[in-house]
Design a protein that fits this description.
The complex is a heterodimer of chains A (596) and B (160). Chain A is of the alpha+beta class and 596 residues long. Chain A has 14 helices and 16 strands. Chain A has a five-stranded antiparallel β-sheet, with helices on both faces. Chain A has a five-stranded mixed β-sheet with strand order 11-13-14-16-15, covered by helices on one side. Chain A has a four-stranded antiparallel β-sheet with strand order 6-9-8-7. The longest helix of chain A has 90 residues. In chain B, 51% of the residues lie in helices and 15% in strands. Chain B contains six helices and five strands. In chain B, helix 3 links the parallel strand 3 and strand 4. The chains are: A alpha+beta (596), B alpha/beta (160).
């Protein structure tokens, strides 16, 4: 039994301080939230990401296809324009001989015919195999010019047809020419037309693609053949690198350092297509952000929706987890209280068992001491010629031995009373009348101590079925303690109140005093047997243990609250009737006897 | 009553011997035995007025010894003197026919007082029995004795 007792406090400590509760709850909270988030937000984001990715890809395909269509359309328009001019010139060269053009007015009428619908040619000239103008219609004075050494002349003489890149030429402004070679009896001759550059450029330069888009032509050397919207003017060198000629259309994304607003490193979509003759590259490009604006907006809405969903889940998770944790905390507190009560009960039972043994074992030697004392007294009375002073001393010692034996007896009998399970006499008890009686009794006792008694009795308190004599023992004990708590004070009060707690079907009686109160350490041990704060010899430390034991035995509950220096409240709750399953605060007497 | 024969039953040898000395010094003729079995044997062979019986003993305990003593059908009265303060065993002993109950340690004067009380009961019973026998024989002396015991015995319980 001693073994059990000495280990109990350690066991209690182990249960209570398993883990620091706030830390444990914090960890639990984190775990719950994390787990819920992993199970809800992660799949949500994953689905969101997959949808967004798929959408992005299809959007990209669509945008690229749109770019392809755009550039194809523009290339076709440009090629048609050039082809139309070339064909007309070729037809003209084939259907007219050199002499026909030299007839006065002939070239002019042909020139006018060309330009009758809209201005398409700037000038038209016929040049012989030596590079000299034979005839010329146009705004410039070029009749005396010789082209024998020019690149275009050589090319047309060699290939029969030539469409030049943009060049400045004698007129010092960007233009390009289409030249076809004709043959007659004298030899080759050339019909050369300067295309109306503004008209051609308008075909390209007037196309608007969004806010950031542009379309332009560059030649193989990377010189602008039309003025681009943001990048450079005609005849300037393009900043982009012109790759090798490729068939069909290429669409790619690249970072361009020159673009709309001159921003640095803008991501752009660039599509390129080469014209056959001349070998010019048609470029259509637009900022990625603009090209994908609609898609980005859709993506943004998805993102916002996802974020709102995630935030809602997070908020709900936190709220639910908090609520759950509150429940857990409440349950923990209940469990801890139950645990403490259980431990207290088992401690009391163990101590009860131990007390019976100790009391019995001490009573026997006490009885021997007592008999030895009486034998000695008998012997001394018979003895003759004893020194009177020794005789006095002996009498005094014998008296003191008896006093101490009686003291020991009182202690052991208190112990036995504490652990004894007496037969309760259950009867109807009028609590209010009972309290009044107890106060009446104690008031006389405490008259000299300056303590005033108050009673606050609720008329609603119904009579209860309980043990009157045991209750008397409890309240006399509590009131004695309350009076003793005023030892250092000249005045004070003891109040006893009664209330009926209808919902719990219990009567609550509170004994409050204005005494010295108790510290936390004392409070924890206040119901422990042998624990007393009274001076040596004044208290056995069993009073409150007996109270505890009795109240438990009557199916009730006793609690204590105290503020050091201000007073103490003992709160007792008694059921309306003692139920059968209560009353086992102590093990049955026969078990104790066996253990003892 | 001076000269009464007292049987002391206690497993504490020193206590039993001391009691013997003290009672003898007060004019009683006492005998100490240290077990229930010894007590029953002593009662079978010798006549005692009062038995002072301890409850908690090894072997045959006090209550069993009391039952055995009662079986002998004697006038001898039994006084319980024990270190064990359980009121349950006290009530049990009284129910079984013990005269009274004392807890250790007690003063010799208290014990003497109880012994005197027990002796008086025993004496009453004996005299009653004799007078009844002289008037008309009864079927069982035990029945009569029990009837008197139930009506006349004062029940006092002293618990420290």
């Amino acid at each position: 039994m001693l073994h059990v007792l000495s280990h109990m406090p350690e066991a209690a400590t182990a249960v209570v301080s398993d883990m620091d509760p706030p830390y444990r709850y914090k960890r639990l909270f984190k775990r719950f939230v994390l787990l819920t988030l992993v199970c809800s937000v992660v799949p949500l984001l994953l689905v969101g990401w997959i949808i967004s990715n798929r959408y992005q890809r299809s959007a990209e395909t669509r945008v690229m296809a749109a770019f392809r269509n755009e550039i194809q359309h523009h290339r076709k328009v440009i090629e048609l324009f050039l082809k139309d001019h070339r064909s007309k010139l070729e037809l003209m060269a084939q259907s007219n001989g050199r002499q026909d053009f030299l007839q006065p007015g002939r070239l002019r009428s042909l020139f006018d015919l060309f330009n009758q619908d809209r201005l398409t040619l700037t000038d038209l000239g016929v040049i012989d195999a030596d590079g000299n103008h034979l005839a010329y219609v146009g705004p410039y004075d070029l009749l005396d010019k010789n082209y024998a050494e020019t690149h275009w002349f050589k090319m047309v003489m060699e290939k029969g047809l030539y469409i030049s890149d943009m060049f400045m030429g004698f007129r010092r402004e960007p233009h390009f020419i289409i030249a076809v070679k004709g043959h007659d009896a004298i030899g080759p001759w050339i019909l050369r037309a300067t295309v109306y550059t503004e008209g051609f450029r308008a075909l390209v330069e007037n196309v608007m693609i969004g806010r950031t888009g542009e379309i332009f032509l560059v030649n193989r050397e990377g010189v602008y053949q039309t003025t681009s919207r943001y990048s450079g003017r005609i005849m300037e060198n393009a900043s982009m690198t012109v790759g090798p000629v490729h068939p069909g259309i290429q669409v790619r994304q690249e970072a361009s350092d020159a673009g709309f607003n001159g921003e640095r490193s803008v991501r752009q979509i660039v599509s390129t297509a080469w014209l056959e003759t001349p070998q010019w590259m048609l470029v259509v490009r637009q900022d990625y952000a603009e090209a994908f604006a609609a898609e980005n907006r859709a993506n943004l809405s998805v993102l916002v929706f996802l974020l709102i969903s995630a935030a809602t889940i997070l908020g709900a998770t936190i709220l639910v987890t908090r609520h759950m944790l509150d429940l857990v905390k409440r349950r923990d507190v209940q469990a801890e209280t139950l645990n403490r009560q259980l431990m207290q009960a088992s401690k009391m039972a163990s101590i009860g068992e131990l007390s019976v043994g100790v009391a019995h074992e001490i009573n026997n030697p006490l009885a021997i001491i007592s008999t030895e004392r009486e034998i000695l007294i008998d012997a001394s009375q018979k003895a003759s010629g004893m020194d009177p002073s020794f005789s006095t001393q002996l009498d005094s010692a014998m008296h003191q031995i008896d006093v101490q034996i009686q003291r020991c007896k009182r202690i052991t009998h208190n112990l036995l009373r504490f652990s004894r399970r007496t037969e309760s006499v259950i009867d109807t008890v009028d609590i209010n009348a009972f309290i009044s009686e107890v106060i009446d009794l104690m008031e006389r006792e405490a008259r000299s101590s300056g303590i005033t008694f108050f009673e606050r009795l609720s008329p609603d308190v119904p009579p209860i079925l309980s043990d009157l004599s045991q209750l008397q023992q409890v309240f006399l004990n509590l009131i004695t303690n309350a009076i003793d708590a005023h030892e250092d004070k000249r005045y004070g009060s003891v109040a006893i109140s009664s209330t009926y707690l209808e919902s719990e079907k219990t009567v609550e009686i509170v004994v409050s005093d204005t005494g010295c109160g108790m510290s936390q350490e004392t409070l924890v041990r206040v119901f422990d047997p042998f624990f007393t704060t009274k001076p040596m010899g004044r208290g056995t430390g069993l009073g409150l243990s007996i109270c505890y034991s009795i109240i438990k035995g009557l199916g009730g509950q006793i609690d204590v609250k105290s503020v050091p220096g201000q007073g103490t409240d003992f709160i007792i709750r008694l059921p309306l009737r003692k139920s059968d399953r209560t009353g086992n605060a102590m093990p049955p007497a026969n078990q104790m006897e066996q253990a003892a | 009553m001076i000269g009464s024969k007292i049987l002391l039953v206690d497993d504490e040898v020193i206590f039993a011997r001391n009691m013997e000395t003290l009672l003898d010094a007060r004019g009683y003729r006492s005998k100490a035995v240290t077990s229930g079995a010894e007590a029953v044997r002593a009662l079978e062979t010798e006549d005692f007025d009062v038995v002072v019986l301890d409850l908690k003993m090894p072997g045959m305990d006090g209550l069993t010894t009391l039952k055995e003593i009662k079986k002998l059908g004697l006038f001898t009265q039994t006084l319980i003197l024990t270190g064990h303060g359980s009121i349950d065993s006290a009530l049990e002993a009284i129910k079984l026919g013990a005269y009274d109950y004392l807890t250790k340690p007690c003063q010799i004067s208290e014990l003497v007082e109880k012994i005197e009380g027990a002796w008086e009961i025993k004496d009453d019973l004996k005299r009653q029995d004799i007078s009844e026998k002289t008037r008309k024989p009864v079927e069982s002396p035990r029945d009569a004795k029990q009837g008197v015991a139930d009506s006349a015995r004062p029940i006092t319980i002293t618990l420290g």
